[in-house]
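sry for the spam today, last one i promise. struct tokens for design, 467 residues
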């Protein structure tokens, strides 16, 4: 049985050390989560897969890592100071605060069975609430020395467009990719990792010739849809596309399509967004905008020192590229991967096992080496040496565990998604009648629970091929 509620995931994540509430010992800080020993591995694996697919396996992509704090003018000309807002309403009775466009997801604090406004309480008229966190820069309080924690990684790529272009000599189309933290002062952070205030994003800005934008936009949507299915392991049936209606598009967008995933409890909701940002951002961060032939309406920029243009050799003129932006959340990606992998299975003997059927590439631990007897020195030494070899030569996370009986150890590894358990026993060390089994181990598959006996010398290959 797959996970039916987010609570099942929250409980597993806490119990096994994937994810904890941020600042938990002080009662937590709403909208923040800490990734524990297994969570950090899962998250790094997801980011690695994304980076490999989008940067290494392509010939038209550069990676970058830009500062979280940026000059305040970035957010003025990007339009975020004015428009990165959500409609906020207050309940006059319970004093609860809600997003007007997400009332259907809200819960009345006084009557949790009701939605805000469906109870006795009366809601105020909506007012705009800016989601950017503001902070002071430098030691002297000065109303002009402020900065924002970035609410998206995208702007770091736009303001570096020229730097990357000049240092790499790229030709259109090409892209810049970045993974990093963003911050949004969400009105109602909730639903575990789905809506947090400190989030991580995997974003890219793909610069194209105007006129090529619509076709390439479509290509990216299909490419990433396949990536979520083939590499992250999400069920295609649980993914859907959502076309943003024209009247709800962000100020920079000509067209936006989201990939939705069917999360437990929430149902279909956004996992990744694909916006055609046109020439808005490069245009709005440029000087001399009137010379640029922009299609987007931008505010006059009095601060930029650069024209963010590309010299088109074919037509012998400077142009402002259009931008296609695939933007995914790392946290929502982890939540989707965990939701998809979670399974409760009833075994033949009636026992229930919880198993995380993660794609092996995402699994925090690839192999667990388990000694059948923990007080037999030869077995323990052999198991520890196998662990060392896998770790060193296979460059994979392997663990040695002898803290319980073999059945319990298998269950523990199933629950955290370890694809292979390797058992070292008396046969392995040549202490049984059947000497043909010397230097062999048992490998148990997480999903089928089938066991095979293979020589230790073949173990590294066996595991590597399968992860
Ligand atoms: P939503 O409509 O859910 O508020 P959004 O459209 O504002 O999301 P984008 O600005 O497109 O989101 O951000 C790109 C991606 O970053 C989203 O698809 C999502 O995966 C992730 N993301 C955005 N806001 C959050 C958040 N508060 N918590 C977790 N992930 C987020």
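last one done:
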């Amino acid at each position: 049985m797959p996970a039916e509620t987010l609570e099942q995931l929250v409980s597993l994540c806490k119990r096994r050390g994937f994810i904890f509430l941020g600042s938990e010992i002080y009662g937590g800080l709403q909208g923040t989560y800490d990734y524990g020993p297994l969570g950090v591995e899962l998250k790094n694996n997801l980011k690695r897969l994304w980076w490999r697919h989008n940067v290494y396996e392509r010939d038209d992509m550069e990676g970058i890592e830009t500062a979280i704090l940026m000059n305040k003018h970035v957010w003025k000309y990007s339009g975020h100071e004015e428009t990165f807002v959500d409609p906020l309403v207050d309940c006059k009775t319970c004093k609860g605060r809600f997003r007007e466009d997400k009332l259907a997801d809200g819960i009345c604090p006084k009557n949790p069975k009701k939605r805000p406004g469906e109870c006795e309480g009366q809601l105020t008229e909506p007012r705009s609430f800016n989601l950017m966190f503001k902070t002071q820069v430098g030691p002297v309080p000065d109303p002009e020395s402020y900065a924002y924690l970035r609410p998206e990684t995208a702007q770091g790529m736009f303001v570096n467009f020229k730097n990357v272009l000049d240092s790499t000599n790229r030709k259109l189309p090409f892209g810049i990719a970045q993974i990093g933290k963003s911050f949004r002062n969400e009105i109602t952070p909730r639903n575990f990792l789905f809506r947090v205030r400190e989030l991580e994003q995997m974003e890219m800005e793909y610069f194209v010739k105007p006129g090529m934008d619509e076709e390439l936009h479509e290509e990216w949507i299909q490419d990433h849809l396949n990536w979520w299915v083939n590499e992250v392991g999400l069920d295609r049936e649980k993914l859907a596309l959502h076309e943003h209606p024209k009247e709800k598009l962000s100020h920079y967008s000509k067209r936006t399509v989201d990939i939705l995933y069917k999360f437990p409890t929430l149902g279909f909701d956004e996992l990744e967004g694909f916006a055609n940002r046109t020439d808005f951002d490069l245009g709005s961060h440029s000087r001399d905008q009137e010379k640029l032939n922009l299609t987007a309406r931008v505010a006059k920029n009095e601060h930029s020192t650069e024209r963010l243009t590309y010299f088109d050799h074919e037509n012998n003129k400077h142009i402002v590229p259009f931008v296609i932006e695939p933007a995914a959340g790392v946290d929502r990606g982890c939540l989707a991967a965990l939701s998809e992998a979670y399974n409760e299975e009833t075994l033949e003997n009636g026992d229930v096992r919880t198993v995380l059927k993660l794609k092996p590439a995402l699994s925090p631990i690839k192999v667990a080496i388990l000694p059948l007897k923990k007080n037999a020195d030869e077995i323990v030494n052999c198991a520890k040496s196998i662990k060392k070899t896998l770790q060193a030569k296979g460059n994979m996370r392997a663990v040695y565990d002898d803290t319980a009986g073999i059945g319990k150890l298998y269950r523990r590894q199933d629950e955290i998604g370890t694809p292979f358990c390797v058992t070292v026993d008396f046969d392995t060390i040549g202490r049984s009648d059947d000497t043909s089994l010397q230097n062999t181990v048992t490998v148990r598959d997480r999903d089928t629970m089938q066991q095979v006996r293979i020589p230790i010398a073949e173990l590294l290959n066996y595991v590597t091929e399968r992860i």
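The mean pLDDT is 95. ok im logging off now
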